[in-house]
Each structure stands twice: as C-alpha cells, then as structure tokens.
Amino acid sequence: MISLGYEIGLSEITSYFGVFEMLLIYITVIGTISIPVFLIILILFHYLKLKIVEVEIARIVIIGVTILGIFLTLFILVKKLPLDIFIPFSIAAIISGMLIKLKRNVNQEDIPNQSRFTQNED
C-alpha cells in the first residue's frame, strides 16, 4: 500500500493503468535503479580480468557484489529488506553466476617454455 494521505492498493493502480503498463513502468524503474550496480560489476569484472585472478575467486566476488547490490537497491527503495523479493533475486544471481562460463585469458609471457602457438606440452 502506498500512503499519501490516502491508501492506494495494487488493484486500484492496475485498474487505472492496466497490467501491461504497470509491467513497463516496473521494468523501467527497476532497470534504471539497477544501472549503477551493473556498472560496478562491469568495472569489477574488467579489473579482475586484468589482475589475472583465478576464475573461481572472480566468480565468487562477482556473485557477492551482485547480491550486495540487490540488498542495497532494495534497502534504498523500501528502507527494509523484503525477503520475498531478496531471496529469489539472490538465488537467480547465484544460479546465473554459476552457469556463466568464465575463462582466464592466458598470456604467452606467463607460460614458460612453450611455443607461441600451442599451450600443450609435446
């Protein structure tokens, strides 16, 4: 319920706007609020890629920052932590973080005694 001197329920909002319009408004607002978290994760990903961190550690750090971003976004919006929203978003972040394939770029200078074109020993 939104309280602005009077109470407005979800049914009144959806009857005024319609479900499709509410979905577009919701996606626009949540997408706009999520942009700072996305940019932080993008910068962190490139930083970890440059620092040549192990893939498992990079994955854990990125998932952790994503969950922290979800927590902070919800806290800023609602001033409390609604678990019915936080838990599904966190589970989705963990599952997608585990499913996305990360590969470490191997520089030829980091591999001693190997030819430039192969990474396997003969």
From TrEMBL:
Q: Which domain of life is it from?
A: Bacteria
Keywords annotated in UniProt: Membrane, Transmembrane, Transmembrane helix
Membrane-spanning ranges: 23-45, 57-77, 83-100
Can you say what this protein is called?
Uncharacterized protein
Native organism:
Brumimicrobium aurantiacum
